[in-house]
Amino acid sequence: MSTGLYSLHINNKKKLYARNIIIAAFLIAFAVISLFPIFYMVTSSFGPAVDSASAARSIFPSSWSLDSFKAYFDFSEYSIRWILNSILVSGCTVLGNVIFASMAGYAFAKINFKGRNFLFFSVLVAMMIPYQVTQVPLYILIVNKFHMSNSYLSLILPGLATSYNIFLAKQFFTSIHTSLLESAKIEGANQLHIFARIVLPISKTILSVMAINTFLSSWNTFFWPFLVTNKEAMYTVQVGLKTFKFANSTLFSPMMAGATISALPMFVLFFALQKYFLEGVTVGAVKG
User: Fold this and answer.
1) What pLDDT score was predicted for residue 153?
2) 3-state DSSP call for residue 246?
3) Rounded CA gap, 97 and 167, in Å?
4) How far, in Å, CA of 104 to CA of 119, rounded?
């Protein structure tokens, strides 16, 4: 009997070991597939700074150098400004969402006012509308009505508070015990003091998630900045990179160098706030 149990135990361990190997192999393959575009971008950025009209390119450049990075900065007098524009626009967008979206989420979660349910329903409806559908009316409003093309306002205002971040903040603030806020009211604190001194300090997780997601979205946006800017001085880095492609050729390695430089702030932000981001993934998953 003991021999049979031992054999069964060994067989179960072998099956578990084989299953773990299969899972690990699948995850490694998925990671390789996901990281390959980044790897290809970085290796290509160290290639020679020459025109390329061929679609067939090798994974590793024929010669390694930093010429492409120098070519990126020498390509236009606004190369550095493109990066600064992206930092300014993304930073203001993140700040706006952290402030305004969190305030709206707190109001929907903890303040009773007339029309609250209807307004929150409108936010949910707005989340279901594809991003591309809003571009035409938004363009007419920003460019034709307000005449704000080629300005920082036209780049920042449309993303200053998104419906998704309002929904995310509302869901998180709902989990905060109302008794904590009621105690602050008894002590004489108004809603603004409660939000600034009690709610925000215990909301670092969700605010960090909002900041990371908003920064990545704003930094990588191409279509809207391309619509509202036609002056090189107002390009963001993503729009500026398109100028490396011509009718019959492409400055491929300098373009990849610019893409590599533009990816650095995203990596820095993610790893700086990684702890809060990973915690935010499970927000609302466990109750009790």
Assistant:
1) 92
2) coil
3) 12
4) 10
Q: CA 256 to CA 41: how far, in whole Å?
A: 6
Look-up of token digits 């001194």: 197
Dist. CA 226–CA 139, nearest whole Å: 11
Q: What is the pLDDT of residues 257-283, one digit of tens each?
A: 888 888 888 888 777 777 766 665 555
Q: 123 to each of 32, 118, 170, how far by Cα in Å?
A: 38, 9, 11
pLDDT at 115: 87
Q: How far apart are CA 74 and CA 68, in angstroms?
A: 10
What pLDDT was estimated at residue 1? 47
What is the pLDDT at residue 156? Answer: 93
Residues 6+ apart with CB under 8 A from 101: 161, 162, 165, 166, 168, 169, 210
Which residues of the chain register pLDDT less than 70?
1-9, 51-57, 247-249, 276-288
- The number of folded domains in the chain is 1
Q: Report yes or no: 91 and 219 within 8 Å, Cβ to Cβ.
A: no
Q: Are 68 and 254 in contact (CB under 8 A)?
A: yes
> What pLDDT score does 28 carry?
93
Question: Do the domain assignments include residue 23?
Answer: no
Residues 6+ apart with CB under 8 A from 269: 211, 212, 215, 216
CATH number of the domain encompassing residue 241: 1.10.3720.10
Closest by CA to 108, choosing from 32, 43, 195, 179, is 195
The answer to the question of residue 201 being in a domain is yes
DSSP 79-128: HHHHHHHHHHHHHHHHHHIIIIIHHHHHHHHH---TTHHHHHHHHHHHHH
